[in-house]
Design goal:
362 residues, alpha/beta, Aspartate Aminotransferase, domain 2, Aspartate Aminotransferase, domain 1, 2 domains, 7-stranded mixed sheet, 16 strands, 35% helix, binds pyridoxal-5'-phosphate, pyridoxal phosphate, aminotransferase, pyridoxal phosphate binding, amino-acid biosynthesis
Length: 362
């Protein structure tokens, strides 16, 4: 809806153009007389749509031939289990880098399936939070894989570099950062992402996996989590989340048309810079992450006078600025400014924050 900006961390807003197209096609997709959600996943129409979506994603991220793209169920948390089940071989361990709440949750889940080493890289200063940079991580050369989360959605911390992994496959939970800036896929063994932030609606999870990592699933791995089986069946071993796949395809097309990942990265920098700069200069609000590690997608911030929190949220809603309440674990506020958030949304937020600050400064 015009004039309404949704800052939810996920499920998050989708691009306005995508929503309009989906609405137009909702009950009659390409003159089939059906909605995409009513088509068989094995119909030639859906198979064509699904492979186009994969081709567009491959183009956007420059995914090499020797990587499979899987369209899965189960969300980010599903992958917290699927990754160790598929990659952690008997008598091997995996390194789990803990940089915040989501990587901690991933490590906890993985520990159910095998031996993991936790490397807690979080550092709490008196007034700020940071993480040890990848060059300082002490990694095990013999690990089955290294798992990390480049963007901690709750904590607002982003890790922009990659560690030197000495050939150990790097597994990245990119749920809240995928497609926000360019990456070199060849540096990763596996990338996964729940769709509900930068890809499409919840219910779909993307896995991009190097082929040599397939075929090692532990005995007892549920079939729908077995990467090899999913790859052999074109992600259609069981019925995939077809409508979510279709919407993801529209998002990929939208991204390609606007200039690809390089262009969205430029826009994301501009939005984040505007918001952080305003917060830092305001004296009324603050962010506690050291510069250089601040998330470009999730911007937590606090009011110096926390007794104004409830009023801030009510007033923000009246101005069409939705879902700014911070995560329950950290409190305060959080503005998630994913790919679909236009610059106009961040400008509207900054203008509101400024007005609120001038009305309530003592
Ligand atoms: N990983 C990250 C970085 C997330 O931000 C989230 C959810 O917000 C998850 C994992 C969990 O995703 P899901 O709810 O799809 O299981």
């Amino acid at each position: 809806m015009s004039g309404i900006f949704n800052f939810c961390a996920g499920p998050a807003m989708l691009p306005a153009e995508v929503m309009t197209k989906a609405q137009q096609e909702f009950i009659n997709w390409q003159d089939t007389g059906c909605s995409v959600m009513e088509l068989s996943h094995r119909s030639k129409e859906f198979v064509a749509l699904a492979s186009q979506a994969e081709a567009d994603l491959r183009h956007l991220l420059n995914i090499p031939e020797n990587y499979k793209v899987l369209f899965c169920h189960g969300g980010g948390r599903g992958q917290f289990s699927a990754v160790p089940l598929n990659l952690l071989k008997p008598r091997q361990s995996a390194d789990y880098i803990v940089s915040g709440s989501w990587s901690k949750a991933a490590a906890k889940e993985a520990a159910q399936y095998g031996e993991i080493n936790i490397l807690d890289i979080t550092r709490e200063g008196e007034n700020n939070k940071s993480v040890l940079p990848p060059q300082e991580w002490t990694l095990n050369k013999y690990a089955a894989y290294i798992h990390y989360c480049p963007n901690e959605t709750v904590d607002g911390i982003e890790i922009f570099d990659l560690p030197k992994s000495h050939g150990v496959p790097i597994v990245a939970d990119m749920s809240s950062t995928i497609l926000s800036h360019e990456i070199d896929v060849t540096r990763y063994g596996l990338i996964y992402a729940g769709a509900q932030k930068n890809i499409g609606p919840s219910g779909l999870t993307l896995v991009i996996v190097r082929e040599d990592l397939l075929g090692h699933a532990a005995k007892g791995t549920p079939a729908i989590m077995n990467y090899q089986l999913l790859a052999e069946n074109g992600s259609m071993y069981n019925t995939p989340p077809t409508y979510a796949w279709y919407l993801a395809g529209l998002v990929f097309q939208w991204l390609r048309e606007l200039g690809g990942v390089a262009e969205i990265a430029r826009r994301n920098q501009e939005k984040a810079q505007l918001l952080y700069q305003y917060i830092d200069n305001s004296g009324f609000y603050y962010n506690n992450v050291v510069t250089g590690q601040r998330s470009l997608m999730n911007v937590p911030f606090w009011l110096t006078d926390e007794s104004l929190n409830a009023l801030f949220l009510t007033e923000a809603e009246k101005h069409g600025l939705l879902a700014l309440k911070g995560h329950r674990m950290v409190g305060g506020m959080r503005a998630s400014i994913y790919n679909a958030m236009p610059l106009a949304g961040v400008k509207a937020l900054v203008a509101f924050m400024d007005k609120f600050a001038s009305e309530h400064s003592k």
